[in-house]
């Protein structure tokens, strides 16, 4: 039976850093199999929202349920956190690969330690996903031997090795040289076509318009506008969004 409950549901969630209110009562949901792009100026709360979704940040108010797990409580057990992190992958802006481990070792570490998979099973899966992101020949090299685009594709493959039901992308192309952006976006587009639930914080407006099902525009810790990708990006309703898109227009 198909599960129609949202992959992520959040109601009036708040996040403060001291006296600074970063999220000011945000409500929304992410459906299973949906690709949602979160856009907005730096400092508007996009990345903080994403980090709340896998409990890298704890909310200060409201209700947040991710893949059936209630993350509203201030404390979760290590077992709950491990289960959450195995179901919700995260791809960071700065790759976060272990420099002293080979690509293959980077991909097999978490499946072995968190999921309890054998070395042979983990390596077989890692090679499968390296093939999927076009880096099968890089299994034995170290991160320093890779380009930025290759590192990010390895990071995506590493996330896939945990067999996640949701993947969060925190500005995955912002640290890349422009000529390397396309190779990462292509992998993400393939995942979207395969039905992966994805939340993508991005400044790549063309990707948001062409790949995302919905776009959420954040401003000053609030959801200022949301809707279908083409509607939000090609027919913005608010002056604030029109100004933002005009500044980003060189990217699409």
UniProtKB/TrEMBL annotation:
Keywords in UniProt for this one? ATP-binding, Nucleotide-binding, Phosphonate transport, Transport
What is the superkingdom listed in this entry's lineage? Bacteria
Gene3D superfamilies per the UniProt record, alphabetical: P-loop containing nucleotide triphosphate hydrolases
Set out the biological process GO terms recorded for this chain's protein: organic phosphonate transport
Provide the ABC transporter domain boundaries: 8-245
Q: What are the protein's GO molecular function terms?
A: ABC-type amino acid transporter activity; ATP binding; ATP hydrolysis activity
Which family does the record assign? Belongs to the ABC transporter superfamily.
Its recorded name reads Amino acid ABC transporter ATP-binding protein
Organism the protein comes from: Aerosakkonema funiforme FACHB-1375
């Amino acid at each position: 039976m198909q599960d129609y409950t949202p992959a992520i549901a959040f109601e009036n969630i708040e996040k403060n850093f001291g006296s600074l209110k970063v999220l000011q009562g945000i409500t929304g949901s992410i459906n299973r199999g949906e690709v949602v792009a979160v856009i907005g100026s730096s400092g508007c709360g996009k990345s903080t929202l994403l980090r709340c979704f896998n409990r890298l940040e704890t909310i200060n108010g409201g209700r947040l349920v991710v893949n059936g797990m209630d993350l509203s409580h201030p404390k979760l057990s290590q077992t709950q956190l491990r289960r959450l992190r195995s179901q919700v992958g995260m791809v960071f802006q700065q790759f976060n690969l272990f420099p002293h481990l080979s690509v293959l070792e980077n991909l097999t570490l978490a499946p072995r330690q968190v999921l309890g998979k054998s070395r042979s099973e983990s390596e077989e899966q890692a090679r499968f996903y390296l093939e999927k992101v076009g880096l099968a020949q890089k299994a034995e090299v170290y991160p320093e031997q890779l380009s930025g685009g290759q590192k990010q594709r390895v990071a995506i493959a590493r996330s896939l090795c945990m067999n996640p039901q949701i993947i969060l992308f925190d500005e995955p192309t912002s640290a890349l040289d422009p000529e390397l952006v396309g190779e990462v976006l292509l992998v993400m587009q393939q995942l979207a076509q395969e039905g992966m639930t994805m939340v993508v914080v991005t400044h790549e407006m063309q990707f948001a318009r062409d790949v995302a099902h919905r776009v959420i525009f954040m401003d000053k810790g609030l959801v200022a506008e949301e809707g279908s990708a083409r509607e939000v990006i090609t027919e913005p309703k608010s002056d604030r969004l029109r100004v933002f898109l005009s500044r980003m227009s060189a990217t699409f």
